[in-house]
Structures are given as C-alpha cells and as structure tokens.
C-alpha cells in the first residue's frame, strides 16, 4: 500500500487554533470556538488511530488517500475522509469516533447512541453521508473517463469499545460498518468478494495521483461564520517566550525582539503570516503585512515576504499582491 495523500491536521483545526490565539481572552465567542476545536481534535485523533491497522496493508497493491475534496459533476464539492484504491474496488472509508452503543434503525435510517451517562442521542447517519459521496465519486470518475470500478462504503468506529447493534432487517447495511479491530478482516473479505481486476496496478497509481491533484481544500471565512469583526483580531508578531504580540523588528538587525522579556527571534513572523492566511486573507500586499506584523517600514515587510517566493497576483509594484500559503515552507531553521 502506498500513501499518496497523507492525513495532516485539518485546516479547520488550524483556523480555530489561530482564532483562539488572536482573540482577546474574554471575547464572547471563545467558548464556542473551544467547543468546536475540542470536537475536531477528538475526531482527528480517531482518524489517526486507524493508521495502526492500515500499516498491516503496507505490502499490498493499494493506494491510500486522506481528506480528499473534489468538485462533483453537480457543481458541489464533496469531501471524503479516506479513500482506499485497489485493483478490484475503491472503498470510501468514513471514520467515526462515536463511543457507547450505536443503534442503526432500519426503518427510520436514524442512528442513536446510548452511553452510561445518556440515553438515545441522535447522531448523523454516516451511511447516508457515504451514499452521497459514492454517487458523487461515481460521477467524477465517469467524467474523468476512468473505468467504472465498484465503489464500496465503509464506516469504521475507531473506539474499540464501541458496540454496534441493529436488527436482522438491517444486516445488509451492517456489512458496511466495522469497528477498528475488525477493519483488516473486513478489507480481506472485500478483496475476496471483489477479486476481479478493474484497474491495472500502473493505472491505479495514475488514478491516485489524479485524485490528489484534483483535491481542492475548503477554506471558509471563519470570522464571518463566528460573527467576529475583523478589528477584534489581535495583530502583531507573538513572542515565542512570553506569548505577547509585542515583537518589534529592527532593534537587532535581522531579528525580532521582545521589549517585555528581551528575547530575540529570527522567524517569529512565520506564524503570524500563517495566521493572516488562516483568518484574514489568502493573498496580501506588503502594506497589509506591514500593518499586521507592525514592521518599522513597508520595505521590511516586503523583505520578510521575499524568501518565501510567493506567487505575485498582479498589480503595480507598490500595490502588488502575493498568494500566501499554509503551511509556509520552513526551509530556514534556527531561532
Ligand atoms: Zn516576550
């Protein structure tokens, strides 16, 4: 198995973290942001925990892609947690970290969870979610003129203590559900059922690369979503030692200096530029960076952007805009 697209910390998580960093402690939206961040972290951990099981498939002719977001033929984007590409099938795998006892109702298609502390909490049905993703992926493959490989759906509950229950009427649906420890046997079972080759190994790599190339990450306007005014965002470069946005440029040549704790830093602006990307805008002018980083001059801001070789987006020299990236390349180390 080759990992074509690795799982990285979701952009959403980085945006929420940046928001907490750059809002005053007492801001009214902080509890809400923290609540969502906690959920995101648990989900991310659940997804990462499945890596152990994937490692057993390392010698197989398979390709693995994480977090793939594509433009569907209906004009809407669709996002898939994990895609496993094999010569006989493509599996869309949705990893859930629901704990407790999960019940799939065959009549209402509802999913409820009960735990020792609570009874019957209604949860989104991951199988319905996967149906939409399957239809979208099928359309995408047809549009890109790929062979019609069987597309399978699999929900994996990452917490080994999760108990899944249903009724005999629902047996066909539960074939698409697995717990983490049963995941490998599930894959083996599918390999036996779908042993016919639809895509040759050489083409499979091309398909995996095509999927990775067409991935378009979602970047939402997080300030708008949480109804936060732009001027609530704290500007400046944070000190790596006292964590205050107090760093000044130019006191020591080529470095940032903290007047509060006398610490100096060479690359403290990188995090600030990333925060700008995550919260404010994907592209910037040197004037905007001068204002956000509180550099002494606009030329200083320009000099800080230069080593990243950002793509210019047009505009005359003084108002030229550049495309920021996240994460910014850290080719330079040391502080
Ligand atoms: Zn400091």
Explain the layout of strands and helices.
Layout lengths: L1 E4 L5 H11 L8 H20 L1 H4 L8 E9 L5 E9 L4 E7 L4 E4 L6 E4 L6 E3 L2 H18 L7 E7 L5 E3 L5 H4 L2 E3 L3 H11 L7 H13 L8 H4 L22 E2 L6 E2 L6 E2 L3 H12 L2 E3 H8 L4 H8 L15 E3 L12
Parallel strand pairs: 1-2, 4-8, 5-9, 8-10
Antiparallel strand pairs: 2-3, 3-4, 5-6, 6-7, 11-12, 12-13, 14-15
Helix pairs in contact: 1-2, 10-11
The chain binds zinc ion.
Zinc ion (ZN) binds next to loops.
InterPro entries: NERD
Protein name: NERD domain-containing protein
Organism: Alkalicoccobacillus porphyridii
Q: TL;DR of this structure?
A:
By secondary structure, the protein is an alpha/beta fold. Helices cover 34% and strands 19% of the residues. It is globular and about 70 Å long.
* Terminal residue distance: 38 Å
Approximately what portion of the residues adopt beta-strand conformation?
A: 15-25%
Helix content: 25-40%
Class per helix and strand makeup: alpha/beta
**Main β-sheet description:** 6 strands, mixed
Query: In DSSP terms, counting alpha (H) and pi (I) runs of 4 or more, how many helices?
Result: 11
- What's the SSE pattern? EHHHEEEEEEHEEHEHHHEEEHEHHE
| Small-molecule components bound | zinc ion
Count of distinct structural domains:
2
* Cross-sheet strand order for the largest sheet: 1-2-3-4-8-10
Weakly predicted, low-confidence segments: none
Mean pLDDT: 90
Cα gyration radius (Å): 24 Å
Please state the overall shape, judged from the principal axes of the Cα atoms.
globular
Number of DSSP-assigned strands: 15
Protein name: NERD domain-containing protein
InterPro entries: NERD
Pfam families: NERD
Organism: Alkalicoccobacillus porphyridii
């Amino acid at each position: 198995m080759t990992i074509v697209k690795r799982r990285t910390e979701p952009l959403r998580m980085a945006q929420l973290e940046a928001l907490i960093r750059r809002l005053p402690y007492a801001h009214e939206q902080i509890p809400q942001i923290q609540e969502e961040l906690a959920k995101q972290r648990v989900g991310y951990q659940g997804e990462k925990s499945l890596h152990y099981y994937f490692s057993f498939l390392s010698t197989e002719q398979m390709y693995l892609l994480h977090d793939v977001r594509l433009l569907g033929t209906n004009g809407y984007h669709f996002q898939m947690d994990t895609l496993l590409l094999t010569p006989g099938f493509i599996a869309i795998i949705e990893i859930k970290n629901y704990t407790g006892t999960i019940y799939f109702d065959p009549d209402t298609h509802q999913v409820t969870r009960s735990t020792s502390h609570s009874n019957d909490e209604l949860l989104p049905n991951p199988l319905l979610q996967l149906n939409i993703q399957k239809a979208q992926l099928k359309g995408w493959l047809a549009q890109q003129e790929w062979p019609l490989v069987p597309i399978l759906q699999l929900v994996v509950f990452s917490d080994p203590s999760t108990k899944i229950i249903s009724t005999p009427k629902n047996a066909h649906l539960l074939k698409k559900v697995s717990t983490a420890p049963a995941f490998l046997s599930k894959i083996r079972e599918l390999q036996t059922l779908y042993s016919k080759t639809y895509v040759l190994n050489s083409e499979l790599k091309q398909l995996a690369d095509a999927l990775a190339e067409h991935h378009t990450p979602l970047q939402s306007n997080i300030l708008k979503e949480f109804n936060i005014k732009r001027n609530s965002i704290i500007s400046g470069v944070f000190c790596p030692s006292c964590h205050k946005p107090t760093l000044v440029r130019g006191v020591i040549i080529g470095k940032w200096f903290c007047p509060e704790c006398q610490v100096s830093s060479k690359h403290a602006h990188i995090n600030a530029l990333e925060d700008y990307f995550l919260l404010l805008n994907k592209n910037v002018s040197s004037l905007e960076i001068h204002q956000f980083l509180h550099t002494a001059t606009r030329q200083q801001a320009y000099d800080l952007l230069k080593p990243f070789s950002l793509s210019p987006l047009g505009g005359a020299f003084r108002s030229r805009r550049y495309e920021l990236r996240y994460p910014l390349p850290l080719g330079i180390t040391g502080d």
